[in-house]
Amino acid sequence: MDQYQVNVAVRLLALEEVLVHVAKVLFVAIGATEQGMADLRERASQKLQESHLPGFEPALSDHLSAELQVAVDEMLSRIETGAAILRMQLHDAHPKD
Predict the structure, then answer these.
(1) Where are the beta strands (DSSP E) in the chain?
(2) 16, 49, 55, 97: which has the fewest C-beta neighbours closer than 10 Å?
């Protein structure tokens, strides 16, 4: 991997980390439930299963769509987990009597 590829990979990872952090805070702030977030992840997965990436031959499009589905599912799972942890931290910091 050359330096340019390393820089691109690092920047993509940084974007993913920022997106996961912002999304978990947003979901907690709007009061999204764990079930609501799980439903969102399921709907996203189904939508990605039904879609194909244009501009690629069909077999490659199917393969890339499957890879994209896995990556999106992993990211949404991280957001769900992060939101659950943040909810617990907020609850522990501000318990309701």
Answers:
(1) none
(2) 97
Note whether 80 and 38 are within 8 A (CB): yes
Phi, psi (5° rounding) for residue 30?
-90, 0
Pick the closest to residue 90 from 37, 38, 33, 28 (CA basis): 28
Q: Name residue, tokens 């764990």.
A: 34
Rg (CA), the chain: 17
Q: What is the pLDDT of residues 33-77, one digit of tens each?
A: 999 999 999 999 999 988 888 899 999 999 999 999 999 999 999
* Structural tokens at position 35: 């079930």
pTM summary value: 0.85
Q: Within 10 A of 23 (CB to CB), how many other CB atoms are there?
A: 19
Tokens 């939508």 -> residue? 47
